[in-house]
Amino acid sequence: MADPKGFLNTDREVARTRPVPERVKDWNEVYVPGSLLPIIGKQAGRCMDCGIPFCHNGCPLGNLIPEWNDYAWRGDWQAAGERLHATNNFPEFTGRLCPAPCESACVLGINQPPVTIKNVEVTIIDKAWEAGGVTPQPPERLSGKTVAVIGSGPAGLAAAQQLTRAGHTVAVYERADRIGGLLRYGIPEFKMEKRHINRRIEQMRAEGTKFRTGVEIGRDIDAADLRKRYDAVVIAAGSTTARDLPVPGRELDGIHQAMEYLPLANKVQEGDYVAPPITAEGKHVVVIGGGDTGADCVGTAHRQGAASVTQLEIMPRPGEERDPVSQPWPTFPMLYKVTSAHEEGGERVYSVSTTHFEGDEDGNVQALHLVEVEFKQGKLEPKPGTEKRIPAQLVTLAMGFTGIDRTNGLVEQFGLELDERGNVARDADYATNVDGVYVAGDAGRGQSLIVWAIAEGRSAARAVDRYLTGTSSLPAPIRPTDRALTV
C-alpha cells in the first residue's frame, strides 16, 4: 500500500490548465507542462489499496492501478511504467483521452473525490518516455505467419503490436494519409498532440510492424484478394458511419458532419493546409450533439475565431452529482461535464431538437430553428410555443455513429455478416463468419471508449495468435460480450 493515511490527509488535486486567453491562441495541449509532477506522488498516495479494487472493474484493460499507484508514490517510476505497460499498449493515449471509468469505480469515490488515476497514469508514461524506458520489443523469432490489420486506430494498433511481438509479420492498412485513425484526425491537437502517436509508430516500426497508408480495403484492394494474401485478417476499421439529421434544409452549404470538420483542422497542424477548407472564423457556429465529439468541435471553433458557439443536446442536462438510485457506484454515471473546451466559452442548450435549417439566396445556412422537448410517456415530444431561431453559419453534426462503413465494399467483398446494430457480427473468439477474419474495436462493438478499443485489440490478437499457432500466451482482458458497468 502507498500512504496508509493518504486518502484522509490529502485532498484531490488535478492537472492545471493554461489560462483560456492564452491557450485558445494555439493548438498545444491545454495543461500546464510539468504541473503534475510536484503533486502526483501525494495523489497516488490517496489510493487505498482496496481488498477488492473496483477500479479494475471500471477499466476493461484490467490495469494494475493500485500497484502502479504504490510505485508512483514511492517514486519508482521504472517499476510503475512496467506495471502500466503490462496491461496497456498506449497509456499516453488513454491518460489523455479516456473519460476514466476507473475513477468512477474507485472505492474512495463512494463518499470522497476519487483518486486521480488518469493523471497518475499519464505522469508515469511521460516519465518513462523521458527516461528512455519505452523501447522497441521485437520478437525473438518469426512464426512465418502473416496478418493484415485493417484500420490504425487504437484497436488496430494494439492488435498489430501484440501480434508483431508474438512473432507474426503484420501489415497495417490505413485509408488516410497518416497512421492513427481517429486518434490522428478525430482528436484535436489541444487534447493530444500528435507527437505522442508518432513516437509509438516509430516504436512499432522498429519492432517490425509494417504500415500501408492511403490504401482503402474494398476500393484500392479487393477484400477477398487481401484474405488470400494473408494467413489472417483483423478488421479494426471503426464505426465510421455518422448519424445524420434528416430535417428540411439539411442540404444547405455549411452543414457538415463533425468528422468532415475536425480532420481539416488537424491537417492544418500537420502542415497540409495554411487554413482549413471548412473554418469557423467569424461565423456563428452551432454544434449539434452534447458528447465528447461535440466538445471537440466547440474547442476547435474557439481556436478558429468563431463569432459565437452554441452546443445543442436533445437530452436534459445531467446532474452534477451521482444519483445513488439511478446511477449507483461503481457504475459510470452520466454527469454534467465541463471540459476544457467548455471552459473557453460558448453556450450549452439542453432539451432541444432541431426542426429545420434556414438558408440565404446562395444556398448557405444562415439560421437554425429549434424547439424545446420533454419526455411524455417515455418519448421526447416538442413543447408548443417554445420554437426559437438562432443564427448559424456553420453547423457541425456530432450525434454519434451507427456502424461500420458500408460504402467502400469491404463488408460485401469479404462476405461479412452484420448484427442488428450494423456492426460486424462475431463469435466468442472475435471471429467473423469468414474463416481467418477477425474483428476488433468499434467495428464489432459499436461506438465506444478508447480503453475498450485497446482491450479488444489485445483480446483479438490472442484469438488470432491461437488460430495461427494452435496456442497463445498473449493476454485477453475482455470477451466480445463484455460491457461497461451499468445499471
User: What is the residue-mean pLDDT, rounded to a whole number?
Assistant: 96
SS elements, strand count: 14
Spatial arrangement of strands, main beta sheet:
3-2-1-4-14
Q: Sheet with the most strands?
A: 5 strands, parallel
Q: Class by helix and strand content?
A: alpha/beta
Number of discrete helical segments: 19
Helix content percent band: 25-40%
pLDDT < 50 stretches: none
- Percent strand equals 5-15%
Based on CA atoms alone, the radius of gyration comes out at 23 Å
Oligomer: single chain
Write out key terms for the chains shown.
5-stranded parallel sheet, 14 strands, single chain, 487 residues
Descriptive report:
With 487 residues, the protein is of the alpha/beta class. Helices cover 32% and strands 15% of the residues. The chain is built from 19 helices and 14 strands. It has helices at 6-9, 20-23, 37-44, 55-58, 65-74, 77-85, 91-97, 101-104, 117-130, 154-165, 182-185, 195-207, 223-229, 258-269, 292-303, 340-343, 410-414, 442-445, 450-469, and strands spanning 146-150, 169-174, 210-213, 232-235, 255-257, 284-288, 308-313, 347-350, 352-359, 365-376, 379-382, 388-391, 394-397, 437-439. A 5-stranded parallel β-sheet has the order 3-2-1-4-14, with helices on both faces. Strand 10 (365-376) and strand 11 (379-382) form a beta hairpin. Helix 3 (37-44) crosses helix 9. The radius of gyration is 23 Å and the shape is globular.
